[in-house]
User: Which sequence fits this backbone?
């Protein structure tokens, strides 16, 4: 149950936040590893992490 919820949350965040940030880049493989602590983290904290990754991959260091 918790694993599926985390998976759905991460999938949605990648779709909304990460993929648009990478749309102008060449094809890139990205692996997201959810640590055990991720199950207890609020959605907003997960979003902040994904946004930070998107900013770094887009070359904008202000998101770090």
Assistant:
């Amino acid at each position: 149950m918790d694993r599926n919820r985390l998976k759905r949350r991460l999938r949605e965040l990648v779709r909304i936040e990460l993929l648009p940030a990478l749309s102008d880049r060449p094809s890139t493989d990205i692996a997201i590893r959810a640590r055990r602590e991720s199950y207890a983290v609020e959605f907003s904290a997960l979003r902040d992490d994904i946004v930070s990754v998107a900013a770094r991959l887009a070359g904008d260091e202000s998101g770090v």
Residues 2-63 form one domain. The helical segments are 2-21, 43-57. The mean pLDDT is 86. Residues 41 and 60 are 25 Å apart (CA to CA).
